[in-house]
Amino acid sequence: MARQTVRAILIGAATVCLAALAGAQAHVAAFGKLAPSSALWLDPDDADALVAKADQEMLAAKGEAVDPAPLAASARLALKSSPLTTGALRQLGLAQAFRNDQDGARNLIQLGNRVSRRDFLSHVWMIEDRVAANDIPGALDHYDIALSISDAAADLLFPVLSDALSEPEIQAAFGPLVRASRPWLPRFLTFAITNGPNSQAVAEILMANGGMPADRSYAGLDGQLLKKLFVDNHYDVMHRYALSLKMGPQALNEVGFTDAAMDPALGPIAWELADATGLRTRRDDGQRLVVVASDNAGGVAATRVMFLKPGNYSFNQTIAPLPESQSGSVTWVLRCLPAGSSETIWKQEFPTGTAEQNYRSPVTIPAQCPGQQLGVIVKGADTQSETGVVLGPVSMSPIAVK
User: Fold this and answer.
1) Is the separation of the CB atoms in 339 and 233 below 8 Å?
2) Tell me: domain 3-242, CATH 2.30.30.100, correct?
3) Is 113 in a helix, a strand, or coil?
């Protein structure tokens, strides 16, 4: 992987983390709301206050070289007062790092982690150290601990980890965290799906490790991921991920408004009904779509993505007007979804009429059309009355080659 790039990001993250935690560490045990200088005025040997003050001074350096001598002296004073102060051991380690003694720094920081694993900055340093050693599982172990002990860690580390998911080594090492369903994982997946650039990597990691963990804290994330894959044009991964949800190929290609085809867990692969000005949509108890369009208005009433195989199909539908409804039109549109294209391969307009009617239309899916988006457009009549239609049943059946 691009270790130098990741290291640069992590070094920047460590500086930001220091900014976030310098204030937090000022809340010393005996005087929770006092700044370190105030606490030290009352007790010059207060170990927690000594550590917080030294962290603030490192922060004030704004990335410039830090003199290791006073940092080490302050840490020793804190340890003399309280020998099990993890932050002080970490600061002794940092002093060695500033002297270019990485082995000495690592030994001291690891010693502090054996005393307590709750010093966040220790884990930030260890993340960088493990990445430098190309120990990706070790780096992720420290990510796991850091994210588990600090609520502030998510804002600081999620962007770094999300960006790194494109690396195959990260994807392989991330699997155990998915299988263990770590407490921070639902928040991270939400972030990575919503904000991250690697929806394809998220899907591949989940598929390789048994899918989204079965816990209600992950509810809705499958649909969100499928939607992001659609937006990012990862249609093949989107198809495979949908199949991995064990919905079955029939549900993925069901044209009708059935329960399976309306399942929100399928994201854009399920029917998405419009809710727009001049257009109202709902599904009735008979698994039919009811659409009401205002006068001379209308629009896309419903859309969904499908993965029909190339070949010839027969599109069949029943259209019935609502009572006292004006005539309008129903137009079905099928588009190809290869990357970088949105070719319309079939478009058919049907009048709504004044009575229930059955319609049939031939459809051909070309070979270079791995994914499709199907939409239905309802337009109202050019009157002052509404146009209401009931669509269904609807089906698309393969035509056997003779």
Assistant:
1) yes
2) no
3) helix
CATH (one of 2.40.160.20, 3.10.150.10, 2.60.120.260, 3.40.50.10490) for 267-398: 2.60.120.260
342 in Cβ contact with 335 (< 8 Å): yes
In tens, the pLDDT along 113-133 reads 999 998 988 998 999 899 889
> In the Cβ-directed half-sphere of 352, how many Cα atoms lie within 13 Å?
26
Per-residue pLDDT tens digits for 58-71 = 877 766 778 999 99
pLDDT at 35: 65
Q: For 255-269, write each residue's pLDDT tens digit.
A: 999 988 998 888 999
| pTM of the full structure | 0.84
**Size of the chain, expressed as the number of residues it contains:** 402
Tokens matching residue 88 = 């002080």
Contact 356/320 with Cβ under 8 angstroms? Answer: yes
Inter-CA distances, 58 with 15, 81, 95, 146, Å: 9, 21, 11, 20
